[in-house]
Amino acid sequence: MAAADVRVARRLYAQHRDVRPLVEQVRTVADGLSGPPYDLRPVRVLLAQLEAQLLPHERAEEAELLPIMVRALGGAEAAGGLSRTHAEIEHQVSRLRRSLADLSDRPEPEDVVDVRRLLYGLYAVLRLHNAQEEEGPFSLIPDVPAGPVPTGGG
Ligand SMILES: [Fe+2]
Ligand SMILES: [Fe+2]
Predict the structure, then answer these.
(1) How remote is the CA of residue 31 from the centroid of ligand 1, in Å?
(2) Ligand minimally distant from the alpha carbon of residue 85
(3) Where are the domains of the chain?
(4) Radius of gyration of the chain from Cα atoms?
(5) Ligand 1 center to residue 42 CA distance, Å?
């Protein structure tokens, strides 16, 4: 990996670790919808955070990390899977945005089921995606251990 690529990859890896608590927050907010009284305000706060923090991070990885990975490994195939999950993350966040736009803060139980399912789906995709980035491109950075980032209780 060229020195300039190492610098960019390190910056993105720091950002990647910083969004970890937000990923866990997706599950926490979904768990909060497990029984009445149903309140969608925490979901709206979460959506704003996903749009302000998570999506810019995923877009930066798509634009900057995947080309580094292709250069380092000499083939575009390895980056294809990560690119598809970036698209899937964007898609799921927009579905969440559309669902919330139609609902009041005190929704009917059947509407909550839908939002909760979306949140758990997004959480599963994000966990898998992050593990693949940690085992893939981020493991190519010198002095970064391969494998999942320790959650460290947060
Ligand atoms: Fe990431
Ligand atoms: Fe990513």
Answers:
(1) 23
(2) 2
(3) 3-140
(4) 17
(5) 23
92 token code pair: 């799921």
- Please tell me the number of the ligand nearest to residue 16's CA: 1
Q: Report pTM.
A: 0.91
Q: What is the pLDDT of residues 42-75, one digit of tens each?
A: 999 999 999 999 999 999 999 999 999 999 988 7
Residue 69: name the closest of 142, 130, 5 by CA: 5
Residue with tokens 């966040």: 93
Give tens-digit pLDDT for 105-141. 889 999 999 999 999 999 999 999 999 999 999 999 9
C-alpha 133 to ligand 2 mean position (Å) = 7
3-140 adopts what CATH topology?
A: Four Helix Bundle (Hemerythrin (Met), subunit A) (1.20.120)
Structural tokens at position 123: 């959480």
